[in-house]
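Title: Prediction job returns without error message
Component: structure pipeline
Severity: low
Priority: P3
Assignee: unassigned

Description:
Job completed but the reporter wants confirmation the result is attached to the right record. Sequence as submitted:
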Amino acid sequence: MPGIMIGTEDGLLEVIPGEEPAWVIEGPAVTALDYRDGVAVAAAPGHGVWAQLSDDWKRLARWRGGDGWECVWEGDARSVRAAPGGEVYIGSSQPAVFAGLPGGAANELGALRGAIQAEPGSADRSPAVTAIAFPEQGPEEALFVAVSGSGVWQSDGTFERFEKRSQGLGADLSGVWIHPERADRLFASTASGFYRSDDGARTWVQSISGLDRSRASSMAVLPGTPDTLLLSCARRDPDLDGALFRSANGGVTWTRLMMESEDEWEHAPLVARLWDSEDTLFAVAGDKVWGSHDGGRSWVTLADGIPQALALAPAL
């Protein structure tokens, strides 16, 4: 499978520790990535979504493509997720969410677009689906959609109705995550900071203790108790003067991380958890790829000379 996937302005870069980084998609800027159990997906705004499948998923999805990356959806993709059942969920700029097996038809979850368009003032905004989240069991349990300029919208899994759940949450959303073991606990990153919800996204509380910059972006949520979180923040738009923070209490307080001799970079770092690991993390900070096997307490360099990263997903 693809190793450590890194989205850049020039395409998708694959990093396998001990080997030279290799370009696997060249051309479009890749701004969103995901990997789960043999399904790897990449989203490029204005172009579409690419996928690479394991042999097992090729048979199940009746895959007609080859062994490499194949474009499976064309459109203005802004976010993408791989679900446990192999389906791919795509967030677009319309704003809308599409879902389907790679290589097959992707159907729009039409209730979302209608709900957003019915919002007062929606015609004056240009919302886009910036993130999609669902519990470990899959979107059939619940589906959460982050829409920039609007908020978080939730469906019960039937996708026939979406309800806005954004009380106390900043509207300039960049990401939303669900705790791997508690489906009612969610986290969100916005231009105004980090937020947490303990009631299924109905209400949100901001956490800033220990954060010396407010533009929250990339995040990793580790399973277990107490909640361990890794959060990337920037001081200036767009994601300039970045640093990486760690919380061992669910975001109540934060500690700024040091990697070798650095704790601040020109751009906000990216961080992601290996999907089936409790404590294995990867990060891109500066021009280096880092790895951690202890929940982010210590880090080792895995590769350097990396161009500015826009998205990160480990697929080892």
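Comment from assignee: result matches the submitted record. The chain has a mean pLDDT of 92.
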